[in-house]
Amino acid sequence: MNVARRLLLSLRKAASFSALLACACASPAANVLDGPGAAHEVLVRQQAAWNEGDVEAFMAEGYWRSERLTFLSGGDWTLGYNGVLERYRRRYLAEGKEMGTLEFSDEEFVSLGPDATLARGRYHLDFADGTAADGLFTLVLRRMDGAWRIVHDHTSAAADG
Question: Model pTM greater than 0.70?
Fold first, then answer.
């Protein structure tokens, strides 16, 4: 192999390594997606469905229809689409319960790759009796069949002050 060819190969390797290193060392904040996008629209549609009192539409608008869906909240680990739907029904649709009015805020979306994103933010629920509930959420969404779907939800209620 001649000297020029070895030098060219070395330069290509160095350039590839530099590009890889730049990606690996990028600040996580550099991956935050600015502005509303398709993943954000999932939350917009879910909020609208919730505020219409339609828990089935809330689920269908965002969650992955799979038994591998995971939902963590209040010390409980719920598996599967049907399990999460039943949890919401017990908590918000049982006799004497209400769904309230939902508002998401402080949403932030961090790209985990071309077909995955992490969403985090706050939720706030107002109920007819004047009480409220709020807390934080972290979601992992994946783009599947052209649509963003929540594959993991970790929601925590704010501690009573």
Answer: yes
